[in-house]
């Protein structure tokens, strides 16, 4: 498979970045809307897409480990290099932790996980309380719920910094960082 070079990123890196990145932005926004406005219609699609994207995320992490991180397009100041490293690590670790915590909260909370009609984990209804569920492990489900909320907030901050950084490269530095992630040779 083609590898990344300093002047051009491989099709694999570009495709995985945008499939995972845009899906994560959608899921962060949907999750936030679900919590703030109690939009229950979004829950099944959020859970199903979050479950499915996990497999692409694992492929992406494996590709990063095998291929290494892309080398910067040009020389930047030390603090910029450190900040971008921290943000890239936060983003890649966050992409792993969000689906795992979401899955654990729903599965162990008794709500189940259904992926477009494929019942991955069955719901555990409470026979004495119609419409309610019984948790398999309320403690772990509760911790996973808190983690999902907290890591979600951290990711939103990291994504905002990341997009600001990409725009700074493009508009202020006028370098090829963004164009390279769009598949162009720089
Ligand atoms: C893959 C990436 C995912 C992202 C980026 C994501 C993001 C979010 C965010 C930001 C929230 C709002 C949390 C808060 O404000 O407290 C949320 C809520 C939620 N997420 Fe996810 N999520 C993902 C995957 C999943 C998965 C795989 C599941 C379950 C299978 C799931 C189930 C839920 C549920 C049930 C809620 C609502 C919790 C509540 O109403 O209290 N999420 N998600
Ligand atoms: C509109 C939104 C986005 C833009 C414009 C954007 C832009 C970029 C650019 C230009 C790079 C290359 C940086 C370099 O050459 O050092 C990059 C890398 C990266 N981006 Fe994004 N990005 C976006 C969304 C996201 C999101 C939501 C995530 C996280 C889920 C993400 C995760 C990463 C990671 C981990 C890298 C390091 C290289 C890699 O693993 O592919 N990006 N991004």
What does this structure look like?
The mean pLDDT is 96. This protein has helices spanning 11-37, 42-67, 78-108, 138-173, 177-181; strands spanning 113-115, 118-121. Helix content is 67%, strand content 4%. It has a single domain (11-181), classed as Fumarate Reductase Cytochrome B subunit, CATH 1.20.950. The protein is mainly alpha-helical. α1 (11-37) packs antiparallel against α2, α2 crosses α3 and α3 runs antiparallel to α4. A two-stranded antiparallel ribbon has the order 1-2. The two termini are 20 Å apart. β1 and β2 form a beta hairpin. It is built from five helices and two strands, in the order αααββαα. Bound molecules: protoporphyrin IX containing FE (2 copies). Residues 13, 17, 20-21, 24-25, 64, 70, 72, 88, 91-92, 95, 159, 162-163, 166, 177-178, 180-181 line the site of one protoporphyrin IX containing FE (HEM).
Topology:
Layout: H1 11-37, H2 42-67, H3 78-108, E1 113-115, E2 118-121, H4 138-173, H5 177-181
Helix pairs in contact: 1-2, 2-3, 3-4
Bound molecules: protoporphyrin IX containing FE (HEM) (2 copies).
What structural category characterises the helix and strand content? mainly alpha
Helix percentage: 55-70%
Identify low-pLDDT runs: none
Widest sheet: strand ordering: 1-2
The overall pLDDT, averaged over residues, is 96
How many strands in all?
A: 2
- Text of the CATH class: Mainly Alpha
The dominant shape is elongated
Order of helices and strands: HHHEEHH
Strand content: under 5%
Total number of helices: 5
Terminal residue distance: 20 Å
In the CATH scheme, what's the topology name?
Answer: Fumarate Reductase Cytochrome B subunit
The hetero compounds bound to this protein are: protoporphyrin IX containing FE
User: What count of domains describes the coordinates?
Assistant: 1
Largest sheet: 2 strands, antiparallel
CATH architecture: Up-down Bundle
């Amino acid at each position: 498979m083609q590898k990344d070079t300093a002047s051009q990123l491989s099709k694999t890196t570009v495709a995985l970045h945008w499939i995972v990145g845009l899906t994560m932005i959608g899921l962060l926004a949907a999750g936030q809307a679900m919590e703030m406005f109690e939009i229950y219609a979004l829950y099944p699609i959020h859970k199903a897409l979050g479950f499915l994207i996990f497999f692409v995320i694992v492929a992406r992490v494996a590709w990063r480990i095998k291929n290494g991180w892309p080398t910067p397009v040009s020389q930047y100041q030390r603090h910029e290099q450190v900040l971008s490293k921290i943000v890239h690590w936060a983003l890649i670790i966050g992409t792993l932790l969000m689906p795992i915590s979401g899955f654990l909260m729903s599965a162990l909370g008794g709500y189940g996980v259904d992926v477009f009609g494929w019942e991955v984990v069955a719901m555990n209804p409470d026979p004495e309380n119609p419409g309610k569920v019984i948790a398999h492990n309320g403690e772990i489900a509760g911790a996973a719920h808190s983690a999902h909320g907290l890591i979600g907030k951290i990711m939103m901050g990291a994504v905002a910094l990341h997009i600001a950084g990409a725009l700074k490269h493009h508009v202020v530095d006028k370098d090829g960082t963004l164009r390279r992630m769009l598949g162009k040779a720089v």
